[in-house]
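Possible regression after last week's pipeline update?

I re-ran a chain I had predicted before the update to compare outputs. Posting the input and the new output here so someone can diff against the archived version. Not blocking, just want to make sure nothing changed silently.
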Amino acid sequence: MESLEAKDEILNNKNKQADERLAEAEAVKKSQFEMLERISGFTVEQAKDYLMKNLEDELTHEKAVKLMEFEQQTREDAEASAREIISMAIQRCAADHVAEATISVVPLPNDEMKGRIIGREGRNIRTIETMTGVDLIIDDTPEAITLSSFEPVRREVARIALEKLIADGRIHPARIEEMIEKARREVDTTIKQEGERAVIEAGVNGIHPELVKLLGRLRYRTSYGQNVLNHSLEVAYLSGVIASELGLDPTIARRAGLLHDIGKALDHEIEGSHVDIGVDVARKYKESETVIHAIQAHHGDVEAKTVIACIVQAADAISAARPGARRENLENYIKRLEKLEEVASSFDGVERCYAIQAGREIRVMVKPEVISDDKMILLARDICKKIESDLEYPGQIKVNIIRESRAIEYAK
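New output (post-update):
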């Protein structure tokens, strides 16, 4: 009994000591908090807020870094996939590399025929020009007449009518009117056939007959020397291939690609850009909103909001930028080559440079004592970046760095 009381007393003493030590610890903790508050100038609540804010800022920074890493990786993967898809589409598109002239030349059997075409007091040539709306240029060019007009269909009518008149030999106003009517009917038939051929080749159906006729008119329309109907077919093929690779409906992509330049069939007759005209025409003949938006966005007039619109933009750029697709005048061509050489020459260590392959490759000779083998790689990259930022050019430009070291000795 006494031992239990003794143990109870010992336990009570220990509890008392524990309470005293706890109170002492609380007092020390309170004094430390007071000291920390005095040193930092923060209350406990303010200190908590401060720590929480620092933690939040740190987490926000880490989150931003991770997002940037993920975005960069995603962008690199997307670019690699895009290059692969586009290069495969280009390889699968076989196209003629021929630019067409925007004037028509009619050969003559002899120079005497020029006088007969002009007619007494110019009545024959006036009849032809009035009925076709085409200017006949009869100059010193031997055995040839040039037809000039901004409207390609009229020019084609005049060309066919003139060839028929020359072959017939009877050239007078009544006969001229008859031949021009025949030529118009022939061109209308050709337009319809070309439109139907384009629709079949593109693999689309259900296009309104008036749109088919407008497609046929593009056979006689050129843009920078590139035939617009052939260009539209190329864009349709490329759009279909790219859409298939992305797992989208290739039919709607081909349809949008085929009709993207439909406004060019009417831009000589209706005010406005070919984009606005194309949108109005497509809407008039009940094309889908996907096709209408692709027409509207293919030159960046509005932001592309569908994948199909982005595909048509890419296919249009590929078709227009391929070598030989479009013509540029000699002055602009020379300026572009000079600018390309100027950009490459602006770097230290470059001795000479030459633009070759019609400006699609630049060969840069460097000084071997200034540019080492390792620096060649960096120099090529720097030149590419400067070309991309300073110049506008179709397709791509290959930068070829050449470093040559020679050791010369003479045997005596």
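Follow-up from reviewer: compared with the archived run. Residues 157 and 198 are 21 Å apart (CA to CA). Marking as no regression found.
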